[in-house]
Request: fold
Amino acid sequence: MLKDLIIRAEEPADYKNTELMAMRSFWNKYGPAADEHFLIRIIRESEDYIPEISRIAEWNGRIVGAVYYTKAWVVDGETYHEVITFGPLAVEPTLEGHDIGGALMRETIKLAKEAGYAGIVLMGEPYYYPRFGFERGAKYGLTDPEGNVFDALMCLPLNDDFSNIKGKIIESQDFEKLEDKERLAEINKEFPKYRVVKVQEGFMQIFEQHLGVVESIESDTYMVRYWELLIPTKLSADLGVTPEVGSDVQFTWNHKEEGKSMITKVFKNLLE
Reply:
């Protein structure tokens, strides 16, 4: 973890910087561009927002992480059980690997338990959240609104009341406002313009990997531009295609050992 990392409640003076950090955190991750910065505004305006347990991370005077909690419900026929959910959980992309997200999760889980909430439900990255105690929702009889179960649907019981809860997970109706593309376009005018990348047709979800551009090649080391960083990478043994300077690539980032990061895919940006 970063030394002197501060986990605290968000204040109005933080809003714009937190939104920019979240925008960078999710940029081109689940598809071209991002809308998580817009989602944060929607959440702040929502009656279902729970600021008492939402938190941001500050380091050296800079906002480097944030997590936002809202009310959710598990519906079983006519019975509504109130629980909570969170999202987005955002971390400044150039500071990944420093356990910022972990610090936010540990602190807010503790706050949620102290506040007496029965449990946390979410649809998120299945490789990441089990480290905090999250389990597959199917184990507890939880489904999405259509009755489906999948690995990304998870839950974390916080007290004994959760054992009596099962049914369909329903999030705040305010999340539907995310479909307002005109408002998103207006909000985007407030932020820097970043390159928009489309890796493939259809839904994209890159777990534990990143998108970058080869900036230079030094022997068998490929220097990949990732935001403000240059990351030395090698080629995956099964890559098949040799990247050139300027190639768009997908890579794994080994935060602990320099030179152990790997290019796993060379692709063409479908928007260019």
User: Anything to note?
Assistant: The CA atoms of residues 56 and 66 lie 4 Å apart. The two ends are 38 Å apart (CA to CA). The mean pLDDT is 95.
